[in-house]
Amino acid sequence: MAWGGGSTGSTTAVQKPWLKKPTPPSWVKSQQRWQPRWQPLSRLVREPRTPLPAPADFQLDREARYSGTVVAYWKWKGYGFVKPDQSGLVPGDWLFVHWSNIQSDDRYPCLMKGMPVEFGIMKWRDKKNMTTLRAKYVTAPGGGMIAILDQLDTQSKTFVGGQHLRYRGTIKFYSPKGRYGYVVLDDGYELSEPVPKELRVEESEVNAAGKRVTRWLENLRVEFGICKTKKGTYEV
């Protein structure tokens, strides 16, 4: 809307202050600059990626057990975060968890986003000499061992002869640095599919009692299952 400006007939635009959009704080502008255009402001809070420093006055109860939910876990990186049910228990309301603190009989201990867990809390000093908090002795609710790989395998893999059928063979080699190796299948098996004599094995398929193999292996007798990948190849 314009208002009259005198006998000349010209008009002058008047800015109404109540229609002017408020200027957001500088920190909001900074965060918005790094967000996709479609992402609403309410989603500016990102998933946790690194552990937070432990407050100097944090009182640690080494024997206490807590419950919570896994909010993020990266299987191939070997870590994730748990949100305690008790709000304000730890800084940021999320706690770093490393695969080595997961109590599991799975060949490759891991967690799934959304699963409930039970845990203790410990202090950890990292390579930068910063003290952080970590979840320790992570179990299923009630203290049971965590076992989820069979469920994940059923959903994502096609097995030769069935999920629980075991074959025997010999490790040709396994490289902990390369995180892979090859297994030679024993003779005498009648297979319904063209499975090769030598089969690749990835680190995630090596069952070392919940640990990771750290030394070179060869000529070691093993047993294993065989699965067919989406590309049509066969692996241990």
Molecular structure report:
- Residues 65-140 form the CSD domain.
- Pfam families: CSD.
- Residues 1-33 are annotated as: Disordered.
- The protein has 236 residues and is mainly β.
- Among the domains are: 66-139, Nucleic acid-binding proteins (OB fold (Dihydrolipoamide Acetyltransferase, E2P)); 157-235, Nucleic acid-binding proteins (OB fold (Dihydrolipoamide Acetyltransferase, E2P)), CATH 2.40.50.
- Helices cover 7% and strands 31% of the residues.
- The chain has 2 helices and 14 strands.
- It has a 5-stranded antiparallel sheet with strand order 5-4-3-6-7, with no helix packed on it. Strands 11-10-9-12 form a 4-stranded antiparallel sheet, with no helix packed on it.
- A hairpin with a 4-residue loop joins strand 3 and strand 4 (79-84).
- The longest helix has 8 residues, at 26-33.
- Residues 1-14, 16-20 and 25-45 have low confidence and may be disordered.
Average of per-residue pLDDT values: 80
Structural class: mainly beta
Q: What fraction, in percent, of the residue positions are helical?
A: under 10%
- CATH class categorisation of the domain at 157-235: Mainly Beta
Element order: H for helix, E for strand: EEHEEEEEHEEEEEEE
Q: Strand content of the residues, in percent?
A: 25-35%
Secondary-structure blueprint:
Layout lengths: L1 E3 L6 E3 L12 H8 L32 E9 L4 E6 L10 E4 L17 E10 L5 E9 L9 H8 L1 E2 L7 E9 L4 E6 L12 E5 L18 E4 L2 E2 L5 E2 L1
Antiparallel strand pairs: 1-2, 3-4, 3-6, 4-5, 6-7, 8-13, 9-10, 9-12, 10-11, 13-14
Question: How do you describe this structure in short?
Answer:
With 236 residues, the protein is mainly beta. It has two helices and 14 strands, in the order E-E-H-E-E-E-E-E-H-E-E-E-E-E-E-E.
